[in-house]
Design a protein that fits this description.
Strand 1 and strand 2 form a beta hairpin. By secondary structure, the protein is an all-alpha fold. The protein has one domain. The chain is globular. Helix content is 47%, strand content 3%. The protein is built from eight helices and two strands; from the N terminus they run ββαααααααα. Helix 4 packs across helix 5. It has a two-stranded antiparallel ribbon with strand order 1-2.
Length: 153
């Protein structure tokens, strides 16, 4: 991300500097942003991890957006590892499908969302970006800044 769009002193560990900007100014997901989540201690294979878990983690670090077959998850010896990777992959797919972090954040707040912890992490920069992009000077509420579809009358 260019220095021109980075707020000074922004929280480095949020991963904000790993995001791209879309043409409309939204925060777009990059491979490096996804890789940062894979690099978190919670996602790193523990010492007792099986070879399949280590291989899956390494391959996702190399290519964070690659497809993962259900058989690859089933090959993991630890049921907790299977669940962790399944949650991560749903999160990653949600980010990519949403097109930008602002839309992904809104989607995480709906019923059946992935995880409140993840929503909290995204809340460190998705809402502030929406407010900074808001062109309505007198009204900087979430309702006035989120992208909406025009309703036909």
């Amino acid at each position: 991300m260019s220095e021109a769009v980075k707020p000074a002193g922004f929280w480095i560990s949020s991963g904000y500097d790993l995001l791209d900007r879309s043409a409309d100014g939204r925060l777009a997901v990059s491979e490096d942003f996804i890789r940062a989540y894979l690099s978190r201690p919670e996602m790193s294979p523990p010492d007792e991890a099986c070879d399949a878990e280590r291989a899956l983690h390494a391959s996702l670090l190399a290519t964070p957006s690659r497809s993962v077959a259900p058989a690859e998850l089933a090959a993991l010896a630890d049921a907790d590892a299977q669940e962790n990777f399944a949650i991560f992959l749903r999160f990653r797919d949600h980010l990519v499908k949403s097109g930008n972090l602002e839309t992904a954040y809104i989607g995480l707040l709906r019923p059946g969302a992935i995880c409140w912890t993840v929503a909290t992490m995204l809340s460190s920069f998705a809402p502030p970006n929406c407010f900074s992009a808001c062109r309505k000077r007198r009204s900087r509420t979430a309702a006035s800044c989120w992208p909406t579809k025009k309703r036909s009358r």
